[in-house]
Amino acid sequence: MKASEGASKLRAAVEAFFDGEILPRHREWVAHVACHPGAPPFLGPLRARARELGLWNLWQPDRLSNRDYAPIAEIMGRLPWASEVFNGQAPDVPNMIMLQHAATAAQKQRWLEPLLDGRIRSAFGMTEPDVASADATNIATSLRRDGGEWVVNGRKWYITGGAHPDCAFVIVMGVSRPEGSRTGRHSCVIVPMDAPGVKVVRELRFLGWDGFVTSKDVVACLREIGVDIAEAPTSKKDLAKIQAQFNAWHEETGLPYIHLSRICAMSAGENYSADKLDDLGSGA
Ligand SMILES: Cc1cc2nc3c(=O)[nH]c(=O)nc-3n(C[C@H](O)[C@H](O)[C@H](O)COP(=O)(O)OP(=O)(O)OC[C@H]3O[C@@H](n4cnc5c(N)ncnc54)[C@H](O)[C@@H]3O)c2cc1C
Q1: What does the pLDDT look like over 77-133, one tens digit per residue?
Q2: Which residue of 98, 130, 141, 160 sits with most ligand 1 atoms within 8 Å of its CB, as the best mutation to test the pocket?
Q3: How far, in Å, CA of 114 to CA of 108, rounded?
Q4: Rounded distance, CA 24 to CA 26, Å?
Q5: Residue 43 and residue 77 in one domain
Q6: Which pTM does this prediction carry?
Q7: Atom of ligand 1 nearest to the CA of 90
């Protein structure tokens, strides 16, 4: 599927920015997040530069179609922190889209505008330790109206970005109408991180890693799958080598590896889901 001319230019600009400004700083990023919870000092100026170049908030539905945005998002997904440079990181993007659709004017002013501006971060709290959360109808946190306020009772985990020092709020999914049908009982509420009763208990480990990955972890993980480089990747050649070795490892072991975004968004023909989203809407 051919991208529009404007989208092709934006894609080329994002790729040039990635190659010239982001990839060369990857080692520095890995070294920083190994010991600090916040963003490395170079991130702010990089974001400002991307913004000056018009590469900010490209995910906005009124700016690009899904089919035009998908190949751009793919470039941003090449390193774990690259999308943040363009304000295209999860879960802020889906949260911003949700707020654009559903928030009141006051909520937009308080939460959406600073997110669009990159001044705060946000999180999404759906998954719960006590229920099978792959089926969201199981979500059990209660949302109860008490005068002019909502009382939220529940325990969530796997809240991406919930422990980030700039996280200002989490959108929490819960049961607001217990008497409703299985698929009609839930709502989402905005919970400020400093609301009374909000407690961040701990960082979860993921694939054996803590919330912040050390360069040693990266090198050890790459070695595990047969990639022998002294440090984390910083060049296109490194990335190509890792991709080739991932592929060989996958072929040899038959084990799955994480490469879902391209398969889901880009696979040709009828399953081209970005196209389907554009043509049929979010119910596709
Ligand atoms: C890196 C990472 C980041 C995440 N970020 C977030 C986040 O920001 N916010 C958030 O809310 N959650 C987040 N999650 C959590 C993730 O979305 C959940 O793990 C997911 O929803 C699955 O729920 P579960 O863990 O309860 O698994 P379960 O629902 O218990 O599923 C376990 C397994 O059983 C299968 N299964 C479940 N039900 C059925 C069924 N009826 N029939 C057949 N098979 C079934 C599932 O496919 C899966 O293989 C994150 C997870 C990870 C790993």
Answers
A1: 999 899 999 999 999 999 999 999 999 999 999 999 999 999 999 999 999 999 999
A2: 160
A3: 9
A4: 6
A5: yes
A6: 0.79
A7: 8
